[in-house]
Design goal:
Layout: E1 3-11, H1 15-26, E2 32-34, E3 48-49, E4 59-60, H2 61-74, E5 78-80, E6 84-88, E7 94-98, E8 103-111, E9 115-117, H3 123-127, E10 133-134, H4 137-140, E11 148-152, H5 156-166, E12 171-175, H6 185-193, E13 197-200, E14 203-209, E15 216-221, E16 229-234, E17 237-240, E18 244-246, E19 277-279, H7 291-311
Parallel strand pairs: 1-2, 1-8, 2-5, 8-19, 10-17, 11-12, 11-17, 12-13
Antiparallel strand pairs: 3-4, 6-7, 7-8, 9-18, 14-15, 15-16
Helix pairs in contact: 1-2, 1-7, 5-6
Bound molecules: NADPH dihydro-nicotinamide-adenine-dinucleotide phosphate (NDP).
Length: about 325
């Protein structure tokens, strides 16, 4: 077991983590960024990013994350391709242990662990995981060329996934539980204009069926009303796009979380309930959840950590 010391430990490597890395390395704090189980975060699973300032023609998600990573490294951030598996914030320096068992003693910690896709909680999702069930169209869409797929959800993510899949699959159904889409107008318009996308409003999924892989979904329309009706939808792929939950389980007993598990911060700062621990990005943001807002809080967390270290005269 090795022990490493750092002034700033950054846990997570999405736009928030890398931006915190850029700022704190430029402040000569030599941050250590633990990339976590999904280096680059959620944007590595997306295709075109059209709304991040500075890319008028858009940019591919994985490419943008690699650029952010290189920018952090350029100024001296150390990037470790492992996950932190345990933290102890009860005394300083904070003691964190990585998945290999190495110990990191950190004067400050910036948590930027992001959020992960939600599932419906049906036993069939586990049964058919990797056999037709997916929460990432860009990762798995390729397997459904000229096939029929369904996307669950009515938000921007669902529309984005449906549009992407419609370029590969023969037919895309959107399974939407309300009688309207929650997505932004521009996404709604794109979906409605795409000929091979059909929106099934007021529908919920009861289960999936198929021999060795998904062959269809059992749906119910107008659940809980006198007109409720069940029907089968033959599909080969079932994609979830119903939102995300914050990746904060590891911190549950260490810092204050809200009812949904998001890290509570003293806005507008990024201070958590433990002095010297800061949070940035989607793990502390149930509202905006955008790459650019995550990057903004990553910047703020780095400045908060720097000020904290200065006030405590530790560098
Ligand atoms: P949202 O929370 O916006 O939408 C989730 C969708 O899933 C809603 O339609 C919701 O239904 C539905 N849903 C949730 N739980 C269930 C369930 N158990 N069963 C069936 N349906 C369910 O999440 P998104 O991931 O779409 O978006 C998150 C944020 O990211 C938003 O702010 C969005 O604008 C943004 N975003 C922006 C993009 C862009 O600008 N290009 C791309 C992707 C995301 P209901 O409406 O009934 O609650």
């Amino acid at each position: 077991m090795e022990t490493k010391k750092t002034r700033v430990l950054i846990i997570g490597s999405g736009p928030a983590g890398y931006t915190a890395g850029i700022y704190s390395s430029r402040a000569n704090l030599k941050p250590v960024i633990y990339e976590g189980p999904q280096p680059g975060g959620q944007l590595t699973q997306t295709t075109e990013i059209e709304n991040f300032p500075g890319y008028p023609q858009g940019i591919q998600g994985p490419e943008m994350m690699e650029e952010l990573r290189q920018q952090a490294i350029r100024f001296g951030a150390e990037v470790v391709s492992r996950a932190i598996s345990k933290v102890d914030f009860s005394s300083r320096p904070f003691r964190c242990v990585d998945e290999r068992g190495d110990e990191i003693l950190a004067d400050t910690v910036i948590i930027s662990t992001g959020a992960s896709a939600k599932y419906l909680g049906l036993p069939d999702e586990d049964k058919y995981m990797g056999l037709g069930v997916s929460a990432c169209a860009t990762c798995d869409g390729f397997f459904y060329r000229k096939k029929k797929v369904a996307v669950v959800g009515g938000g921007d993510t669902a529309c984005e996934e449906a549009l992407y899949l419609s370029t590969l699959a023969e037919k895309v159904y959107m399974i939407v539980r309300k009688d309207y889409l929650r997505a932004s107008n521009v996404m709604q318009k794109r979906v409605r204009e795409r000929e091979n996308i059909e929106i099934l409003f007021e529908c919920n999924t009861l289960g999936l069926y198929g021999d060795g892989g998904v062959e269809g979904a059992r749906l119910i329309r107008r659940k809980g009303t006198p007109e409720a009706e069940e029907f089968d939808l033959p599909i080969d792929g079932f994609f979830l796009a119903i939102g995300h939950h914050p990746n904060t389980e590891m911190f549950r007993d260490q810092i204050r979380l809200d009812a949904e598990g998001y890290i509570e911060v003293e806005a507008p700062s990024t201070r958590t309930s433990v002095e010297g621990v800061f949070a940035a990005g989607d793990c502390a943001d149930p509202t905006y959840r955008q790459a650019v807002s995550a990057a903004g809080t990553g910047c703020r967390a780095a400045l908060d950590a720097e000020r904290y270290l200065m006030e405590h005269d530790e560098f």
